[in-house]
């Protein structure tokens, strides 16, 4: 099983166990909202633009609400569990596009619940995550208010944020660094070192794609 399929299945198991009203780390979203988002992302390409493009966000939000209104929660989770659209036909594309997406959203649900602890990820998945983080650091940290040096435990360094001025060192495992760069700073198990004011600014910044 690919990591995308494994994370997808584990997320769906968790969604089923928690039900539709559990919190997530996605601001304002319950597990029901997250399930609708994931269905939209794979099965409604006409509405995907608003995920990243603000002028289109209103239409995307309306489609997401209609998905919730038109599908009971168990049905939406069932749709998430089965890769949709082109991903159902091309497993390699599913792995390339969805492995990190489903990892992050799996953690969005896990870490919004009490008494969570980080998972021990397979080493090959850690390497895969780090490869994506290290090549995408500039994009993910383009809104960082200070320079950032990512240090992966086990080896690897990547730079992001402004090239001049204050700089903050962020150290952790690849999965934790990914969550940090995706805007989950308060829930990523990383160590930050640098000027305290710079560290505070980075923690409060809106990061991610």
Would you spell out the secondary-structure blueprint of this structure?
Layout: H1 3-18, H2 31-43, H3 57-70, H4 73-81, H5 91-110, H6 123-140, E1 147-152, E2 157-160, E3 167-172, H7 174-181, E4 191-193, H8 196-204
Helix pairs in contact: 1-4, 1-5, 2-3, 2-4, 6-7
Description:
- This protein has 209 residues and is α+β, with helices and mostly antiparallel strands.
- The protein folds into 2 domains: 3-110, no CATH class; 124-204, 2-Layer Sandwich (Nonspecific Lipid-transfer Protein, Chain A).
- The protein has helices at residues 3-18, 31-43, 57-70, 73-81, 91-110, 123-140, 174-181, 196-204, and strands at 147-152, 157-160, 167-172, 191-193.
- The protein has a 4-stranded mixed beta sheet.
- The radius of gyration is 17 Å and the shape is globular.
- The model has no long low-confidence stretch (mean pLDDT 92).
